[in-house]
Each structure stands twice: as C-alpha cells, then as structure tokens.
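Following up on my earlier thread - several people asked me to post the actual chain instead of describing it. Fair enough. Here it is, all 506 residues.
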Amino acid sequence: MGDGRAPVLIGVAQRSVRPGDPPAGDLPLEGASDPLALLDAVARGALADAGLGPTALASLDTIGLVDALGWYPKNGPRLLADRLGASPRRELVTGVGGEGPLLLLNHVARALARGESELALVVGVNVIRSFRLARAKGVHLDLPLGGDGAPTAVSVSRPGHSPREERYGLAAPVTIYPLFENALRARRGESLEAHRARLGALMAPFTRVAASNPHAWFPVERSADELVRVGPENRLVAFPYPKYLNAVIETDQAAAVLVASEAAARRLGLPAVRDVGWWGGAVAVEDPWFATERPDFAACPALGSAARAALSEAGVGVDALAHIDLYSCFPIAVELGCEALGLAEDDPRGLTVTGGLPYAGGPGNNYSLHAVAAAVERVRASGGSALATGNGWYLTKHSASVLGPGARPVAAAASPPEPAAPAPRPAVAFAEEAEGAARVETYTVVYDRAGAPTQGIVVGREEGGRRFLARLPDDRALLEAFAAREGVGRTGRVAHRDGLNRFEPR
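Reply from S.P.:
Thanks for posting it. Predicted structure:
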C-alpha cells in the first residue's frame, strides 16, 4: 500500500485478579473487582507496553469493547473513555460470543487500513468470579452503568440455543459440547478408553503453557492421566468431560490491545522494530445455526472456512505459522480445529499461546483477546507469524486473525474476504413427538457436584430418519451404565410422554 495505513499492534496488556490478589477498584465487597477499573488498568498497561504516556490518549480515535457478560452499561466505551480522559469519535461493541474479540480486532484493523482511524484501543473484561461472590454474599455491586451516547454494534447477537433444545436441557456449553465430542469419537471408531487417553494427551500440553503464563488462572501443569482421571477434584460434569476439560468462566480478567496505523505509530515516535502487523482476518458462521439442527455433529465446516480465509488474506500457509492458538473451550473445539487446518493434535509448535480456556481462563467472551496479547509477545520475542481463532456459542460463530512481524499492507481493505464456506446444509427434519424404534446419534449424561448422574440427553433418529431429542429414564443405575459403554448407535424405543420424548435403550 505504501501509504502508512497498514495496521500494527503496538501495545498489549493483560490482568488477572485471582483470589487473594488486591481487587481492581473499590467495591463494597472484599475481593470483588470493578470491571471499569480493570479496563482502565489494562488500557493504561497497553499504553505503557507501547512506550507511550497518557498524552497519547489525545490521539485515540476509537475504543472497541468486547461484550462483558453480566455487565451491560449503556455505553461502555464512553465510560472507559471518560475515565481515561480520551475523546474517541468511534465507540464499538460486540454481541455475545467468543468470536467477538477477533471479529472486533479485524473490524478495527480494516478501518485503519481504509484511513478511517489512526489509533484504536480494543478491550475486554470478565468479572464473573466477582458477580458470583457477590451473589453468594447477598451483596449488590453498584457498578457503573451509564455512558452518554450509543455505541455502534459490530456483530449481531441472537440466541445460541433453540426453545426445543432448552426443553431437553441443552441450554449451556457444558451440556451441548459433549454431543459433538461423543459424535467425533464414534466417527473415529475409538473405544471409550482410547478416547479418554487421547483427550488427556491433547490437553496436557495446554497446562504446560498455562503453568508458564503469569496471567493464567490455573498456572498448574497436569499430566494427561490427571486431566481425565475422575475423582473428588475432577468430577464428571457431562460425559465425557470431567471438570479439568471444561472451560473455566468464573474469573476476573481483562485484556487490551492498542492498534495503530503504521504512519501513526511513527508519528508517536515508536520504533518499527516492535511493530506486530495485522495481516488478515475473517469470520464465518455455521448454517444451520442451532447445534441440533446441523446434519453432522462431527463436522464444523465454517471453522475451517474462517481460518483458511484469514491465512489466505495474510499470504501465510499453515506450515509457515510459528505460533497457533486454537479456541479451546472444550477439547472438541481443538480437535475440529486441527482437522479443519490439517494440524496434528501433537503438533510440535503447540496449539495454544496462553494455556487455553480451561487453564489460562475462559473470561466470558474475551478469551481470544488474551490470545492476541500473548501472540504479540511471542512474535516480538521470536518472530514468525501467528494464527488465533475464536468461537461463539456452540461451534456456531467463528473468527480468525493472523499476525506477524512488521506492517503489511492490507489488500482490498474496503471489504473483508468472504470465507469460502460450503453451501448451506439443510436443517434435518425433526420429530417433535417421536414414537417407535430408534437409534442414538449422539448423547451425554449430566452429573451433579457430588458426581451422581442427574439426567441423560439423547439426540436420535427414528427408523424413518427424522431426528428427535429425548431424555433417558431418570434411573441412576441406567444412567451410569449408559455412560460406561459406547452410546452412539445404540438402539431402543422412543415415546412421547409428559411433554417430552423419552428414549428407552435396549
């Protein structure tokens, strides 16, 4: 391009406020953090990381805020701007979804490349730990909820699950992601034992990275066996995932990234040697949207479409990447990411730069901004390009960004490349009131905190091919037995009783 508009990441910061750490802000509850105070801290940290003082805030023309679960001020970017003493002309927010940080970064980078912005701050925060602490103590947290004006939404929010799914207990990540995992295991033809061992081997390197990450929520290295061995400290949550394979959302964490045009970075007196360029990005969504309406639980085509489109725009092949961070809320997201990109699950480069959501922390919608901050530090330290991916809802919305050493002009900056997504797949036909012989397509068994199974959820097919959702009988022995052998492909009978389909296995 040669016009100084190429976007570069010039400053990053992260902060984790763990139990026992001094909290951010001054709330009327010991140990609770104020999300605005955390945002202020990482914003100023990103300025300092760039080598800039507070006077640089006068040049800040854009603030973008990732959706902060549970904290919904009228205009969060304006609240932060007022606290920083900045006057940006563009205030952006995302909707709910873990794809949001990279989607927002891509949006800001393209605005820089078009000359619509010169210096932007992308921030995100999660204080779910503080919210739950306040609820347990019966304390109201009087958080700032104002902010003049209205920010511009850069993504659209819509429910992640359908009313049908909610009726059967499929209304949270911990129950929906296991459906994908069990389907993938069956498609690969693995035994339960081999599958369990592979999950441990897949995620153990994540704990090793987390153990060396000063911002990780659980900086503890664990063995593959420890991750999958069920016990008092690692209870089953929903089969096949024990606690150590679930994203941890109850954290207080924030991250910030300062992005500038190459010309603005030079005007601010920053050396080009520290520039980490934004080289490309993309987003894609699954069609059909709702998880149980997709024809194949063991495939996620839009994930690969987004990542490949970002790499294509950057002109970087998968083999040339030096740093990789695959979204890792649950192992299935990593597994399908590897399949989509042709990566081995034991790729020597590693599959995370933070330690992943179960160990570094899955702070609401903002995990991938932490991945970007960590990737910037790695690129600065050792060079090479980096890929980060994001995932919203239930392998539904996908984003990807590619970073590398030095500014790189963005081709066709006026509009992002369209991912080469496959044609929309027709939603499967459903039997709302299923009857007769049937087989299991995928399933999970949900457990309570004491380790006892509480419900079994089946996605099945009638003999005629229609899909149904169903509950297993509320019998502890049956539920335990159902989770003790492969359930995909099992046959039985389904009947509609008391407003729900009920599946009786043979």
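The first helix runs from residue 35 to 50. That should answer part of your original question.
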